[in-house]
Amino acid sequence: MTHDELAFAPVHSLASEMAAGRLTSAKLTEACLERIRRHGEKLHAFVALYAEEAFRAARAADEAIASGHRIGPFHGIPVALKDIIDLKGRITTGGSKVWEKRVSPRTATLARKLIGAGMIVLGKTHSVEFAMGSFGTNTHMGTPWNPWDMKELRAPGGSSSGTGVAVAAGLAPWGIGTDTGGSVRIPASWCGLAGLKTTIGRISVHGVLPLAHTLDTPGPMCRSVEDAALLYNLLQGPDPLDPLTLRRPPDDPMPLLKRGVAGLVLARLPASERGQVDAEVLAAYDASLAVLEKLGAKLVDVKLPRSFAELGAMAGRIIGCEGYSYVGTLTDDPAQPVDPHVRPRIGLGKGVSARDYLLLLREREQLKRDWSKALAGCDALLAPTTLTAAPRVADIDQSGTAAVITRAINLVDGCALAVRNGFTRNGLPASLQIACRGYDEATALRIGWAYEQAAGWRERHPTL
Questions:
Q1: Residue 114: CB partners within 8 Å, gap ≥ 6?
Q2: Which is nearest to 389 in space by CA: 124, 189, 183?
Q3: Contacts of 253 by beta carbon, 8 Å cutoff, 6+ apart
């Protein structure tokens, strides 16, 4: 396989090649590093690259595998980490110039799992400052370049912007993002990936810089649904350092992954919400419904308790309140080099009383019950992940949000998979969001795998 062929092969195929002795970690890692050297300056996906250490670790992996000490299927596979995930002794900026010299005091639990599985950390990828933004822009640290349009700077999606660009452009086989209101799914949508927003408590957030602790969820960002299922399966599970992970035992998605969708009941986007969706994105969505119906799923209409705009606004208030508790002292200080677009978003939490915050949380609990009732009997709710394909950065209204559809799923403690479902006339990816009840990632991945196999969109890659 050439470097370019290696760059876009799914991880499950790469792992099989390595197991058969036809591929080495050193060759795969060098292919990633070579693409980063060739395209990294323009794409601006990585804030820190650990090239020397990664290649040294890859050679060590090859030696271990050759001597019969293969840890598991992902031993020697490279991975990219969003720059809000701590690695002890490394700089973790959280996308902020304020923290450009912040040395991580610990290694995040999820990073320990990746390294413990033998993976090679290529480096840290760019984030919107404090992970507070859906477009993927960063005034001071730089905005990653969406690889689906190499002529015009288009939004990569945020806040996991660098991971989205790195994986989509073949700089890394897969990567980790985090999702508080859509920050895995929006870059997955605009960069053409499979991105899984996990249920809160599925994957430990110990060592992940917080934005909103009642909403923050790490998740995989991959080029195929099967890879997303494999990476999720590795990362989920109890961690004594994160009590929320002790709520439910792990649930392996692999036995159900390829079972198909025949007999599943899937809810459509309410008709009242369709008017806000771009025509090309809506056409791709409708075509997705037709594919799933042909595969044997039953499509039904539902009445949601509130509009996506209302649900998103409630989630935004919670993010503002909780985010302000973590970084409000920084955003309140005009002398600090805080992104001017991020400062007012965090400022939403300023002045909110304890009473009003607690009332908001109480209202959320009732809403979760109403949401569950509205979707009773349904296996998933299907919607476009984003209302549009990736916009030009020059056209973005930073006072708005791209998380119109996605925030609702965080608010109700659900899980959701974003999967590519077509392209616009100018070659930009569209995306389908498959939202399921909390802790039912296996069903979201099952639906996504069936759709992906039938639709065939994952074979198309950006030309750099």
A1: 79, 81, 121, 176, 234, 235
A2: 189
A3: 229, 232, 233, 441, 442, 445, 446
Q: Cα–Cα distance between 146 and 129 in angstroms, integer?
A: 18
Cα 464 from Cα 457, distance rounded (Å):
18
Mean of pLDDT values over 181-187: 98
CA distance 431 to 429: 7
Torsion sign, CA atoms 182, 184, 187, 189: negative
Catalytic residue flag (residue 159): yes
Task: Determine which one of 82, 224, 288, 431 is catalytic.
Answer: 82
3-state class (DSSP) for residue 33: helix
Q: What is the mean pLDDT of the chain?
A: 98
pLDDT for residue 275: 98
Residue 82 is among the residues annotated as catalytic for this protein: yes
pLDDT tens per residue, range 120-138: 999 999 999 999 999 999 9
What residues have CB less than 8 Å from 434, skipping those under 6 apart?
380, 381, 382, 416, 417, 418, 419, 444, 447, 448, 451
Q: Helix, strand or coil for residue 194?
A: strand
User: Which ranges of 181-305 would DSSP assign to H, the alpha helix?
Assistant: 185-191, 225-235, 254-257, 279-294
Q: Has residue 3 got a pLDDT over 90?
A: no
Identify the pLDDT of residue 425.
Answer: 98
Comparing CA positions, the residue from 299, 285, 270, 267 lying closest to residue 375 is: 267
pLDDT digits (tens, 9 = 90+) for 349-395: 999 999 999 999 999 999 999 999 999 999 999 999 999 999 999 99
The closest alpha carbon to 134, from 261, 316, 306, 302, belongs to 316
Q: What is the CA radius of gyration of the chain?
A: 20
Of residues 25, 96, 134, 159, which has the active-site annotation?
159
The pair phi, psi for residue 80, each rounded to 5°, is -115, 140
Architecture of the 3-272+274-302+376-459 domain: Alpha-Beta Complex (3.90)
- Tell me the three state secondary structure of residue 419: strand
Count of other CB atoms within 10 angstroms of residue 294: 10
| Residue 397: per-residue pLDDT | 98
Out of 96, 160, 183, 224, the active site residue is: 183
What pLDDT does 1 receive?
79
Question: What are the residue ranges spanned by the domains of the chain?
Answer: 3-272+274-302+376-459
Question: Mean per-residue pLDDT for 139-159?
Answer: 98
| Segment 52-56 mean pLDDT | 98
Sign of CA dihedral 8, 64, 82, 316: positive
